[in-house]
Design a protein that fits this description.
Layout: E1 7-10, E2 13-14, E3 21-22, E4 36-40, E5 49-54, E6 59-65, E7 68-73, E8 78-83, E9 88-92, E10 97-101, E11 108-113, E12 122-123, H1 126-134
Antiparallel strand pairs: 1-9, 2-3, 4-11, 5-10, 5-12, 6-9, 6-11, 7-8, 7-10
The structure holds thymidine-5'-diphosphate.
Length: 136
Amino acid sequence: MTIADCRILQLPKISDVRGNLTFIEGGNHIPFDIARVYFLYDIPGGADRGSHAHRKLHQLMISTSGSFDVILDDGMEKKQFHLNRSFQGLYISPMTWRYLDNFSSGAVCTVLASEVYDESDYIRDYNVFLSEVESR
Ligand code: TYD
């Protein structure tokens, strides 16, 4: 998989004068079954997150409040995304280095993940990431 697989997916949006509703079904609106959901919130100004890759994990990242930037890197190419819509999700394939910053005040980053938490799936050293990319 490369960075070309990482893309913004448009999620269903039920517009209503009482407020909008978006829903996500594993294996239907996103290309994996959901095993875990987590969120980043109460993020102080100037903070950054991420700076790692996953060997097997598929993820969908959504700004469910506010906005932030995500920089993706497959070892050869980098792409930057600005997430600021609750009906758009950024699909992140395995073996993609990610870095998140520029969080607005009140931003919430909601992440759907294909596996439960497993620290051994993380690559936290960029040079190890590059050597694993090359050996694939
Ligand atoms: P990490 O994934 O490094 O955070 P981020 O990429 O958003 O900066 O996780 C931070 C800490 O939280 C780390 O000690 C692992 C722990 N953690 C869990 O226990 N379960 C989880 O589902 C996640 C995502 C993290």
